[in-house]
Amino acid sequence: MKLSRGMSWFLLAFGVWSWVIWPNFLRNIWKDPRSWDAGPTAFFTVHLLLVVASLAFGTVIGLLGVRGVRAGRSK
User: Transmembrane region positions (predicted)?
Assistant: First the structure.
C-alpha cells in the first residue's frame, strides 16, 4: 500500500500530537485527588490504561507516517 505525502505527514503529526497531549493528561490525572486513596483508585487505573493505549497507537501511527515520508523522499 502506498501513502500519499500529505497522509504520511498527517500520520506523523498525529503521532507527535499524541506524545504532546497524553503525557500532560497523565500529569493532570496524577495530581487529581480522585486518583489516590491509599493507592491508585479505579479512576486512576482506567485513565492510565487510556493513556498507555493512546501512546501505543500514537507511536504506531507516527511510525507509519515516518515510513511514508521516508519512502516518498527516496523517489
Answer: 7-26, 46-66
